[in-house]
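Lab notes, practical 5.
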Amino acid sequence: MADKPNMSLEKNKMPSQAPDVRNKNFLEVALGYTEEQAIDEAKRCLNCPKKPCVGGCPVSIDIPAFIAKVKEGQFEEAYQIISKSSSLPAVCGRVCPQESQCEQRCVRGIKGEPVAIGRLERFVADWHNANVKENPVKPESNGHKVAIIGSGPSGLACAGDLAKKGYDVTIYEALHLAGGVLVYGIPEFRLPKSIVQKEIDGLKALGVKIETNVVVGKTISIDELKDEFGYEAVFIGSGAGLPRFMNIPGENLNGVYSANEFLTRINLMKAYKEDAHTPIKHPEKAVVVGGGNVAMDAARCAKRLGADVTIVYRRTKTELPARAEEVEHAEEEGIKFAFLHNPVEVIGNDGWVSAVKCQVMELSEPDESGRRKPVPIEGKFETIEADCMIMSIGTSPNPLIKSTTEGLDTQSWGGIIADEATGLTSREGVYAGGDAVTGAATVILAMGAGKNAAAAIDEYISNK
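Output from the prediction step:
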């Protein structure tokens, strides 16, 4: 007789470090399910015939099928199902916003919590990495060459799918380490870099080559890649690494960082370690401006450096764009929030930040779309003491590729114009996807764009 389904209305809780312990170290916060917890959680899945959860996954993982294997304790079989659709399952299981994608469509979420799809994906990937040592088999070459610009999620996904089809794929990465935002943007306590390296090693085993310290547009151009190096197609997955600032007085003071720089120094260059070769301020009081996942990451990093941290956001908690789990973790770790505050000046002392002056805001009446805009309360200001200010109000694509590639159409804000379904740009044989096209978005959406482009590139070269 088959095991009865688990009809609990709640997910199995994720084991994690205690808040007052983890806010002082950079070790991973979530500890992962045990085998028993994973099987118990898998039993909550009803294996719906219409698979609504799959429609919420940007890379179309067969979610009920892999969960059914977990339920049976067949963890490697579950991994093989996931890996047919995803090149980075251990990454996605950790950083995907499942609550607004696959889990949002889960039938179990109608009268309780949805199945913990992300936690199960993470468990399966971690089990595979811990127990299976054989590398994937390198496919037979089909004799065609493709270049990938950028080794972030979209580039890695595109490279993985093309390599599986036998393409000779080379990734060109500007930094000294592959992984893009996965290594420079997302902190160790959310995504251990050993996990990212393991996923990249799997792609290398498929034959993907990675050239680091190559800045396309400076070191080499797209035209040279095609005309001189013989690549039949090029995929641009260069991300959106150009930080934005508010252009308010005092932004040039010492102690003001973009979140991009702050996180890169900590995550990629390990500035939190005592023997680090890159400098970073260990603040006593830090103000982080913004309300997205990057702001949460920056704030939680500053907390681990010993700072008293306040996140300044011009709307209310209800409008925070960050994942609810990240906000909850930040609150548990002792990070404060100043809602309905908008910085108007960075106050300095002897060339360094000493305080941030904020305009107090209120939300307007809803407009035609139902959105309430933050508007200033005239004459009402508050000053927050700080010796460090981290700006996390968004990023744009770096203009380097646009400025060095003739005939490549871009948006007024810098994003490359590309077909949504295929990634094809205005240049024949040149495709683009991820944050370089959309602006800053999620890892899984970037991966979906990379997969779509890989399919389109394969069709383009096959038709040639």
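Observations recorded by the TA: Residues 443-463 form the longest helix (21 residues). The CA atoms of residues 191 and 201 lie 16 Å apart.
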